[in-house]
Design a protein that fits this description.
Layout (H helix, E strand, L loop, with lengths): L12 H6 L3 H7 L9 H10 L3 H19 L3 H20 L3 H18 L2 H17 L3 H16 L6 H20 L3 H20 L12 H14 L3 H9 L9 H17 L3 H14 L7 H13 L6 H8 L6
Helix pairs in contact: 2-4, 3-4, 3-5, 4-5, 5-6, 5-7, 6-7, 7-8, 7-9, 8-9, 9-10, 9-11, 10-11, 11-12, 11-13, 12-13, 13-14, 14-15, 15-16
């Protein structure tokens, strides 16, 4: 990948190093703005685990987002969604600095849009790079502020409730990584209560929303694994039916988190089974740096497992972007 030292506009320098062709796309993209379908299409690729195809669309998508962001609150609103998605994709690739840069840009665009839902999405995006750089306390503060602002709505829509619950889940996982079990439990319980509220009121069931009781269970696996309560993590994993999770990316995440808990419990063969389920759900997920690290751990501890050598060889390459 060719490195270019040209500063494009705030937040896009990292992407110039990360995405081949971004510089040219931005240079030639003026006048082109985001269409209503751009972000939903990109989200579908992400949810399907098609990170290779999503990455191919990024130069043009980011160029249009950059142009739209200049047009006012409505354009900033659409652009914020793009920057959140780019940050999430950077996390998948282990590019923490890039994820942080685009999460910050998402926050700027979200504030310009004036939409609390987008501010919450930006806070969730920012939480991951903050956690991974030892600033979980700052991440929790941002998430608490976003949660409080959304929760202040006296008559929340289904979209607001969905966002409230997802912010709470992200905060619970962040608190677990910071080893604050009381906060982790409090936020996880809040998310479960919100998911139950949505489920009980069919008129408010959000179409295409992220929050569900299954999503809460999935997060519980990771929360309790981070807290070192492996038995509880595995109990939640046993109660999670991956088929009810809505996307390949979520099903791969379930298998990944379960594999981590199993490795912590010294059940290496079953952890390898879960890693194979990651690949089955979304093949490119198995090539993520963090998942390849789990494969390497399995190989170090049980190199004799049938099929492991082929699996490790097949998934050894980085994401083919």
């Amino acid at each position: 990948m060719v490195e270019r030292r040209t500063v494009l506009s705030a937040g896009l320098y990292a992407a110039a190093l990360w995405t081949v062709g971004t510089t040219q796309a931005l240079a030639g993209g003026r006048g082109q703005r985001l269409a209503e379908t751009d972000l939903p299409v990109a989200h579908r690729l992400f949810a399907a685990g098609r990170y290779d195809r999503l990455h191919q669309t990024l130069p043009g998508l980011m160029a249009r987002a950059s142009e739209s962001e200049r047009t006012g609150p409505a354009g900033a609103s659409r652009a914020a969604g793009v920057w959140v998605l780019v940050s999430q994709l950077a996390v998948k690739e282990g590019e923490v600095d890039t994820a942080a840069a685009f999460a910050a840009r998402a926050g700027t665009a979200a504030r310009r849009s004036g939409r609390p839902l987008l501010l919450a999405a930006a806070a969730r995006a920012a939480a991951t790079p903050l956690r991974r750089t030892g600033r979980a306390d700052r991440a929790l503060q941002m998430l608490q502020e976003a949660h409080d602002e959304l929760d202040a709505d006296p008559r929340p829509s289904e979209g607001v409730l969905d966002a409230v619950g997802m912010v709470a889940l992200t905060a619970a996982y962040t608190a677990a990584q910071a080893r604050i079990p009381s906060a982790a439990e409090q936020f996880a319980s809040l998310a479960e209560q919100t998911a139950a509220r949505l489920l009980n009121d069919r008129r408010r069931a959000p179409a295409g929303g992220d929050l569900s009781l299954a999503q809460c269970t999935l997060y519980r696996v990771g929360i309790h694994q981070k807290l070192g309560d492996i038995d509880r993590a595995l109990a939640y994993a046993a109660n999670l039916e991956p088929a009810v999770l809505p996307t390949p990316e979520r099903r791969a995440r379930a298998a990944t988190d379960t594999a981590r808990a199993l490795l912590a419990a010294n059940d290496v063969p079953t952890a390898f089974v879960q890693l194979q389920l990651v690949e089955r759900a979304a093949p490119l997920e198995a090539r993520r740096p963090s998942v390849r690290a789990l494969t390497a751990e399995v190989a170090a501890r049980r190199p004799d497992l049938p099929g492991l050598t082929d699996f490790a060889r097949r998934t050894a390459l980085r994401l083919a972007l």
